[in-house]
Amino acid sequence: MTLDAETAGHLARAGLDNVAREYPHHPGHLLTGLDDLAEPHGLHPVFFGSYDWHSAVHQHWLLLRLLRRHPDLPERKRIHAWFDDRLTTTNVATEVACFDHPARRTFEWLAITPLPAPGRRTCEQRLRLPTARRGVPGPR
Fold this sequence. Notes:
The chain is mainly alpha-helical. The protein contains eight helices and no strands. The longest helix is centred in the middle third of the chain and has 17 residues, at 53-69.
């Protein structure tokens, strides 16, 4: 199946809208006390949009995949800006720290592991963060 530029642009705009939309939000984790209550972007500074964490991971993958398949996509600057803003060492370390919290370890382990980084090399390098990952395999 081929993906034409018009459809790729439509998907990119939808993906960008989704990753930035914080509400409505379904946290999908057990609350064990008041410390577990936070705004979605506080719990997951990278993957907070798209209704839930898992969907946010998929939307980010979609954006990276679109960049790989359509490097001249008109939305490419917005996509790169989004990743440059969200994939900071601090934000990724906060996401990784959620894996250490037993109430937030549902399917995040499975969802984050296969996240590829087919976009710019800087995005791929930021996702690797070997010192913060503590045993979580990097992208393939």
